[in-house]
Amino acid sequence: MRTALVIGTGLIGTSIALALSARGVTVHLSDHDPGTARTAAALGAGTEAPPEGPVDLAVIAVPPAHVAATVARAVRGGLARGYLDVASVKGGPRRELEALGLDLDSYLGTHPMSGKERSGPLAATADLFEGRPWVLTPGRGTDTEVLNLALELVSLCRGVPVVMDADAHDRAVALVSHTPQLMSSMVAARLRDAEESAVRLCGQGIRDVTRIAASDPGMWIDILTANPGPIADVLSGIAGDLQDTVQALRALESSDEDKRQGGVRLVEDLLRRGNAGRSRVPGKHGAAPAAYEVVAVFVTDRPGELARIFADAGEAGVNIEDVRIEHATGQQAGLAELTVEPSAAPLLSAALRERGWSIRQ
């Protein structure tokens, strides 16, 4: 791949353009808002100048509702040898293109499974896709050349290609991406009118659950309206669990011991099903989930604190598998939760105590 055209210079389009430009591909940028394309170009993502002839690959990075029309214009204009989109929904746009009677041999629907709460070119980074799954949904007539161009794009962006059927992809993202966004927003919405005394008690749990609720509503309206059926199917199952759980919790208020025990059993069943589902989430490097232990270290909010912890762990010969910070409300301090192999936890705790760190059990 020597030349590319990126149509749509938001977070995803600009990140792709930055990655390609950094690896020597000449990238042309296009957007319905010239100012957005100008910003992406200023960041080093490519040039606003139109290509003089067909490019190797046109990347359509627009909202799902606009994919079909944008791809159709690009194909009819002969802008590239191959065309792909990077929208988060795949089945609908392809059916729209088929309804237009377009020859889709040169087109491939894709979806990089990466993003941020922030949108727009200023949030873009060339490493956004590194190590992240990038779904490819080739059709029966997809040209081998186009598939190879798509695989090259994924490689240049350091992503991990995953081939799926378009409708299977939409059902999958409804479960693992779209529904979590709605659930996060529903929980966060409860905080809007909550008492200040309650909000001040927010800990890491509520921060984890509501993190993606900060996402751009306009962007998510585009996504959710493009995949309503599969999302509604998942939410329907969750609604059943919610109704059962409400009834179970009401039963726990009853003076009838049989009702109380029935409520306990139902809640316990839900929690255990949650345990089983959580255990299926892929672990490090996509491998099967591993059992880890957490060593919690009290840290102050000073430059270099985390670097010192990592250095001390390294000197102790312990590999830190993951880390997160739980901030203390109203204090310039918090807990650094270091995730390690179970056998390494006692060694790390002892080594850090020797170096003057305060360990929380």
From TrEMBL:
It comes from the Bacteria. InterPro entries: 6-PGluconate_DH-like_C_sf (IPR008927), ACT-like_dom_sf (IPR045865), ACT_dom (IPR002912), NAD(P)-bd_dom_sf (IPR036291), PDH_C (IPR046825), PDH_N (IPR046826), Preph/Arog_dehydrog (IPR050812), Prephen_DH (IPR003099). SUPFAM superfamilies: 6-phosphogluconate dehydrogenase C-terminal domain-like, ACT-like, NAD(P)-binding Rossmann-fold domains. Pathway: Amino-acid biosynthesis; L-tyrosine biosynthesis; (4-hydroxyphenyl)pyruvate from prephenate (NAD(+) route): step 1/1. Residues 294-361 form the ACT domain. Keywords: Amino-acid biosynthesis, Aromatic amino acid biosynthesis, NAD, Oxidoreductase, Tyrosine biosynthesis. Residues 2-282 form the Prephenate/arogenate dehydrogenase domain. Its EC number is 1.3.1.12. The keyword NAD applies. It catalyses: prephenate + NAD(+) = 3-(4-hydroxyphenyl)pyruvate + CO2 + NADH. The keyword Ligase does not apply. PANTHER family: PREPHENATE DEHYDROGENASE, PREPHENATE DEHYDROGENASE [NADP(+)]. Belongs to the prephenate/arogenate dehydrogenase family. This is Prephenate dehydrogenase. It comes from Streptomyces tremellae.
